[in-house]
C-alpha cells in the first residue's frame, strides 16, 4: 500500500506543471551554457594559439637577423627555458641549438613562415614550431632557424577555464533550478488553493467561492472567472429550487381541488356532476401549467423549437383583440395597430400575445389598449391597461417565473405567475426585448420590440380590427 502510494505520488510529481517548468528551464539553460562554454574554451584556445604564433614568429625573425649579422642566434631566446632554437642547414643537419635541445636532431623540416605543433623528446609538453630563413649572406647561406615555444601555458589556461566551467555551471544550474522551483511553486500555490476549494464545493455548498490572489495576473483572472461561474451556478441552483417548489405548489392546488370534490362525490353520489366539472377545469389548468413549464424548460436548454417564416404580426394582434372582446366587460382599443412583418414562429407569437392580453385584462379596471408600429427597424408592440400599475422597482422582477404582485395573489384569478416569464423567453428567442413601464392609461405598459423582416421598410398606416 505504501509503495503504491509512493508510485502514485511520483507519477503525480512527474506530471506536475512545477516539475515540467523547472525541468524545461534547467534543460534549456544547460544546453545554452554548454554551447557557450564550448565556444568560450574554443575561443580562448584560438586566441592563445594566435598570440603564441605571433611570439614565435617574432623570435624566429630576431634569431635569423642575429645569425645574418654573425652573432649567436641563441641570444634572441636566452633565459627562456620554454623556448627551443635550432639552426639547420639545407640538408637538415643541426648546426647550433639552445642548451635545452643540445644533441637533439632537428625538430622537423619546415618552410619559412610555416607553423606546426610537435611533440619533443626532451619535454613533456608539445611545442609550437615555426621557421625563418636566415638568408644567403656570409656564412648563413642556405640556413634555417627553427624556433619552438612550449604549449604548456595554452594547455594550462584551457584546463583552468574548463575546470572552472565544470564546477561553476552545475552550481549555476542548481541555483536556477531551485529558484525556478520556488518561483513556480509560489506562482502555482493559488492554483492549488483554488483546486482544493473547488474540490470541496458540492451542490449543497454553492455559496462558497475560490480564493482570489491580490495580484491581477492570469491566476487572479482565473479565480475571478471561476467565482463568476459559481455565482451563475448558485443562481441557477436557487432558480431551479424555487422553480420546483413553485411548480409543486401550483400543481398541488388543482390536485387538492379534484381530491376534495372526489371525496364529496363519494359521500354524495348525486354531486358527481360537480366532480366532473371541477376535474375538467382543474385538469385544463394543470395542462396549461405543464405546457408552460415545458416551454420554459426548453427555453432554459436553448431547445425552444421555432419555425421561422415571415409573419404579419398585425394579423396576430387583431386576432388576439377579437378574442379578448368576446364576452369581455371592458373596452379593448386597437386603433393604433399598424401593419408590421417579422420573421418568427406564428404559434409561439400567438402564445406571447395571448399571455400579454390575459395579463392586461386580468389587471385592467375597464380598458385595454394595443398598439403596433414600425420604429428603427423593429416592430414595436405596446399593451396598456388602466389597472393599479406596477411599482418601478418591480418592473424587471415581473418577468421572472412564478412572480405575483400583491393584488394578484389569488391563484384562481391571478394565474400561475408564468405568463410574463414566457413572454420574455419567446421575445428573447426571436431576438427582441420586452420591458414594463407605466401606462398613460394609469396602469402598466408592456412594450415588446421584435426585429422586422428584412424586406419590410418604412411605416404603414394604422389598421382597424
Structural summary, described in words:
The chain is α+β, with helices and mostly antiparallel strands. Helices cover 51% and strands 16% of the residues. The chain has three domains: 1-200, no CATH class; 218-300, Helix Hairpins (Orthogonal Bundle); 309-451, Heat Shock Protein 90, CATH 3.30.565.10. It has helices spanning 2-14, 17-68, 152-200, 218-267, 272-300, 313-325, 346-363, 411-414, 419-429; strands at 83-88, 94-97, 115-119, 126-133, 144-150, 309-312, 331-337, 341-344, 367-375, 378-385, 433-438, 444-451. The protein has a five-stranded antiparallel sheet, covered by helices on one side. Strand 11 (433-438) and strand 12 (444-451) form a beta hairpin. Helix 2 (17-68) packs antiparallel against helix 3 (152-200), helix 5 (272-300) packs parallel to helix 9 (419-429) and helix 7 runs antiparallel to helix 9. The longest helix has 52 residues, at 17-68.
